Amino acid sequence: MVINPTYLAQRTRTSVNWQDAKRRVTKSYREWLRSAPEIQQMYSLNMPVSEIRTKVRQEFERHRYVNQLPVVDMLLFQSHSEYQETLNYWKQLPHVLKYFREKENPTARLPQSFMQGFLEGRN
């Protein structure tokens, strides 16, 4: 297998207006949804494709009400970086499974403060 670091690479750009940003977000969302079966197969995930697509939707819905164009551009850049790293298999299985941690282990949570995490022996 030949590793091509430019596979799925895009130039960083800013959105001209809200219509352009909406088009770019929709394109990114569709790319993620279309690649869900490939992600499942590539990482040998023991979950249905529908669950992966649901998680992708949740991640996009989390930022639904962002109302600043530069923030939307930054989120699009992060989304595409994650997409490229995932499909190029630059991530390991734990990196992908961290998105599903709440689903797998309902007791998994972040500590309320640094001291509480320190005393619990968590990072």
Short description:
With 123 residues, the chain is mainly alpha-helical. It has six helices and no strands.
Write the layout of secondary structure elements.
Layout: H1 18-43, H2 49-62, H3 69-87, H4 93-97, H5 101-104, H6 114-120
Helix pairs in contact: 1-2, 1-3
Provide mean pLDDT, rounded. Answer: 87
**Number of DSSP strand runs:** 0
Low-pLDDT segments = none
Distance between the termini: 36 Å
Silhouette:
globular
Succession of helices and strands: HHHHHH
Q: What is the C-alpha radius of gyration, as a whole number of Å? A: 17 Å
The computed structural class is: mainly alpha
* Discrete helix count: 6
- Biggest sheet character: none
Strand content: under 5%
Kindly state the percentage of residues in helix: 55-70%
Can you offer a commentary on this structure?
- With 123 residues, the protein is mostly helical.
- It is 61% helix and 0% strand.
- The chain has 6 helices and no strands.
- It has helices at residues 18-43, 49-62, 69-87, 93-97, 101-104, 114-120.
- The longest helix is centred in the N-terminal third of the chain and has 26 residues, at 18-43.
- The radius of gyration is 17 Å and the shape is globular.
- The N and C termini lie far apart (36 Å).
- The mean pLDDT is 87.
